[in-house]
Amino acid sequence: MRIASTRRANWLMSGEAYEGRKRLVRVGGELVEVIEMGRGEPIVIVPGLAGGWKLLTPLARSLARRHRVLLYGFRDEFNPLSSRLAHQVGDYARDLSDLIGELGLERPTVFGVSFGGAVALEFAVDQPHRVSRLILSGVEPRFRTTLASTIARRVLERFPLPSDNPFVNQFFNLFHGGKPESPALARFVVERCWETDQGVMARRLAMLESFDVSDRLWRLEAPTLVVGGGRDVVVPADRQKALASMIPGARFESVEGAGHVGFLTHSADVARHVERLSRGGRPSLA
Fold first, then answer.
1. In a domain, 232, yes or no
2. What is the pTM for the complete model shown?
3. Lowest mean per-residue pLDDT among 15-19, 189-193, 235-239, 274-278
4. Which of 118, 141, 184, 190 could cross-link to 214 by cystine, CB 3.0-4.6 Å?
């Protein structure tokens, strides 16, 4: 097991992990990166709080065996000094809507992880007719502010930090739900997360404090899958299961041994759950 995880981590850190067709697409006057892999029914993956699309490449590669997978970066990921800064989760959701239109996608599957799950939820409750299937990981309908998240936001807002800062890096390591199995994999997560400007991270954490779609979940029309890591300490599995119970017809799947970045560490398991959703039932046409 240790040998396999080491090989996987080495692969993740190689250039091979980023292969795919990359282009720039203009969304709301700003350029965003779009990476496309595979063929088949389209799945748009919405990135999380930090790490951008690169953190999602293992999941994308697993899904690309049977699907056309589209990764993208938020506009303030590509340009942290963007003149059109997002001020709330809804701004990112509108960008997602524009991106889907620019890519000519009629009703793709939308897969949001962590902060990207909040963006995907906001988009899906606002425009339910534009989503074929909805997949969520590491998200809840109304985020609960914790002491840890408050401290992290204050530190990111007020103190310029080096990328090897042990305090913040320990926060990133919590994403694994315990001691990371592979030191190389832990470094991969930390290095990718620090590619996101710390001011951008702080701003996104602040947005989550006012995020709440709990009173609009009834609007969701698409078959929905919530995939929670059994060891997720950021958004525990029971809270993600509660989200699924609030969405008509939604299914919850727990990935044992996975933390908040289970989409990375257990990407093959997550892809299997997604494939089962794809094979089951037709999406609503309402």
1. yes
2. 0.86
3. 15-19
4. 141
Is 77 a residue whose pLDDT tops 80?
Answer: no
pLDDT at 1 over 90: no
Tracing tokens 């699309």 back to the chain, one arrives at 53
Q: For residues 243 and 140, is the Cβ–Cβ distance under 8 A? A: yes
Supply the range of the domain harboring residue 13.
Answer: 2-279
Domain for residue 284, yes or no?
Answer: no
- Residues of the chain with pLDDT > 90, as a percent, come to 56
The answer to whether position 12 is within a domain reads yes
Output the domain CATH number for residue 99: 3.40.50.1820
185 contact partners, CB below 8 Å, separation of at least 6? 5, 8, 9, 12, 264, 265
Name the strands in the sheet holding 109-113, side by side, starting at the edge strand that comes first in the sequence: 21-27, 30-37, 68-72, 42-46, 109-113, 133-137, 224-229, 251-255
Q: Assess contact for 271 and 63: CB atoms under 8 A.
A: yes
How far is it, in rounded angstroms, from Cα 142 to Cα 208?
8
The residues, ordered by sequence, that sit 6+ positions from 241 with a Cβ below 8 Å of its Cβ are 226, 228, 252, 254
Residue 152 lies in a domain: yes
Give how many domains the chain has, as a whole number: 1
For 114-164, the pLDDT digits (tens) are 999 999 999 999 999 999 999 999 999 998 765 455 556 555 655 566 566
